[in-house]
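User: C-alpha cells for both sequences below?

Assistant:
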Amino acid sequence: MTTEDAPEPREEAAPEPQPDPAAELAKAQAQAAEYLDLAKRAKADFLNYQDRVRREREELRKYAVESFVFDLLPALESLAHTMAALRAGTADTKAVLDGVAIAEKEFLRVLAKNGITPIEAIGRIFDPLLHEAVGTVPSDQPENTVVEETRGGWKIHDRVLRPAAVRIAQKSPASEPPPTA
C-alpha cells in the first residue's frame, strides 16, 4: 500500500456541547413572560376598544335625531308665529289657515326627507299590515275597501310606524241580491 492509498485518519468529531438546561429554562421563561405581557396588552386594548365603541354608540343614539329636529324647527317657528298672531288678535282666518298650511307643508317635507311617509288608505283594499279596522260602513264600494280613515297611518322606509285606523266597506243589505232557492 502506498501512502496515497492509505485512508486518512479520521478526526474524532467533538461531541456537540449540550445546552445548559438552566439557560434554556430561563430563555423559555423570558419568552413566556413576553407572550403573557403581549396577551395582557391585547386584552387591555380590546377592553378599551369595547368601551370606546359603547360610548360612541351612546353618543350616536343620544344625538341621532339632531338633524331631523333641526329640519323641523322652521315648521315649529311657523306655528309659533301663527299662535302669536292669534293671541295678539291681529290674525284673520285666512292668515291663520295660511300659517298652519305652511307649517303642515314643512312638516310633511321634513318627514318625507327622512323616509317617513303617510300610508295611503282610502280606496285601497284593507291590508292588516297597513290598516287597523275600527269599524265597517254600509257602502256600494267593493267589500273590504277602505272608505274612511279615522287616524292616519305612517311608515318609515318599509316599516310601519303606526297603522292607519280605518272603516271598511260592507255590502249594504239592500244591495245584496235575494237568495235563490
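Moving on to the next sequence.
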Amino acid sequence: MQSYRNEPPVLLADLNEYITCKLCKGYLIDAVSITECLHPFCKSCIVKYLNERYDCPSCGILIHQSHPLNYISFDRTLQDIVYKVVPDLRRKEKLLRENFYRMMGKSPPASE
C-alpha cells in the first residue's frame, strides 16, 4: 500500500476555484448545482441570475426557459465540504442570518 505521508498538504487556496461561486466570488453558501451541467453556485446568486437569463454562467448551456429553478438542485455534499475546509464559515453564516432576521423583526427559523 502506498503511503501519502510525504504528500504536501492541500492548501485552501488550491481548492478555492472548486468551492467558490462564479457569480459572487465568495465561498458557496446553500450550494446548488445546475442539473444539466453540474456547475455549482450559491442558491441566492443563481436564483437572482435566473430571473434575467436562462443559461449557465460557467458554460453557457441553456437551462429550461419557462421553469429554470426546476433545474437546480441542492448540493449538500459540496456544501458540507465547503464548511469543513473553510474555518468558521458555518458559524459566521449562521450569525449573519440571525442578524438579518432580527433586522426584519422576525425570529430565525429553528433549523438555523
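User: Anything stand out in the second?

Assistant: DSSP finds four helices and three strands in the chain.
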